[in-house]
Design brief:
By secondary structure, this protein is mainly beta. The chain is built from one helix and eight strands. Strand 2 and strand 3 form a beta hairpin.
Length: about 110
């Protein structure tokens, strides 16, 4: 008697197509948002902390990549940006969202002013 052949089926590929995906916690509070495109052709992933602080990873329509850390009031605490041309920028802000440290090019321009 011949042994039976075991046939294994490939799992079916499942694809989700959407412009955005929003994940909420058990209380219904938005905790993560994935946006494929907005009006300015940006793609973004935002992760929200329980008190509203957020981490945002984005790529703009011109291929500028940014990582931003935001306070619960939406003010930027820190951001790192790299442009398509390769210029890097680091901005650290105070509690009011006022930038206190900029990129090297910003510092160079400031030192050239009389």
């Amino acid at each position: 008697m011949k042994p039976k052949k075991t046939v294994t089926k490939k799992p079916r590929e499942k694809v989700l197509v959407a412009n955005s995906i929003i994940l909420k916690d058990l209380r219904g509070k938005v905790r993560m948002c994935l946006e494929a495109r907005d009006a300015r052709d940006n793609s973004r992933i935002t992760i929200f902390g329980k008190n509203g602080e957020s981490l945002c990873l984005s790529v703009d329509g011109d291929s500028t990549c940014t990582v931003g850390l935001l306070h619960s009031d939406g003010k930027t605490g820190a951001s790192i940006t790299v442009s398509r041309e390769g210029e890097s920028r680091l901005i650290l802000s105070d509690a009011n969202g006022v930038p206190v440290i900029f990129s090297q090019s910003d510092l160079s321009q400031a030192s050239e002013k009389p």
